[in-house]
Amino acid sequence: MMKDEIKEVLISEQEIQDKCRELGQRITEEYEGRFPLVVGVLKGAMPFMADLTKRIDTHIEMDFMDVSSYGKGLVSSGEVKILKDLDTSVEGRDVLILEDIIDSGLTLSYLIELFHYRKAKSVKVVTLLDKPDGRKVDLVPDMAGFIVPDAFVVGYGLDYIERYRNLPYIGVLKPEIYES
Ligand SMILES: O=P(O)(O)OC[C@H]1O[C@H](OP(=O)(O)OP(=O)(O)O)[C@H](O)[C@@H]1O
Ligand code: HPA
Ligand SMILES: [Mg+2]
What we know:
Protein name: Hypoxanthine phosphoribosyltransferase
Bound molecules: 1-O-pyrophosphono-5-O-phosphono-alpha-D-ribofuranose, hypoxanthine, magnesium ion
Shape: globular
GO molecular function: guanine phosphoribosyltransferase activity; hypoxanthine phosphoribosyltransferase activity; magnesium ion binding; nucleotide binding
Number of domains: 1
Keywords: Cytoplasm, Glycosyltransferase, Magnesium, Metal-binding, Nucleotide-binding, Purine salvage, Transferase
Oligomer: single chain
Pfam families: Pribosyltran
Family: Belongs to the purine/pyrimidine phosphoribosyltransferase family.
Structural class: alpha/beta
CATH topology: Rossmann fold
């Protein structure tokens, strides 16, 4: 079974759900009456977007962007490609970007710059996971769920060669999985 390939669970399903409630409450307070555009970054942010937005108790609009900087492997290529753009204009909008993880920071720094260039009124970032040791550019999220160590993590949207996104928790794979 898939779970037999996991060496260690770093963040449990319960901890993730509790964090979604907490972040949802903070977002509700901050964005009450502002009708923010909540942008999920595909594919990784999909489970977090689904769970977090259910805990936001004020009107929001949701949209998605698909960008890729990793290709298929473990390291960022450094080049960000837009695979799917927003359907909505960000001009004059309060934009809240939802991410599963900030690692090198390249994906988000690209998106933040892009939304400012497109004249968003404000751009903020909420990430489930923050891996500060991976940073290649200066970037501090406005809200972060958990700090993770400098290891490749999978689950709850995060993949290794497109697998493991459907795990309900965040974990680390057994080393033999990468070797095979
Ligand atoms: O801070 P960075 O080093 O840029 O890494 C973070 C980004 O990389 C992953 O996405 P990926 O490009 O692998 O696409 P995916 O979400 O479809 O897996 C992850 O979901 C973040 O979007
Ligand atoms: O640790 C990670 N795991 C999965 N995808 C990622 N994209 C950036 N960092 C990671
Ligand atoms: Mg990925």
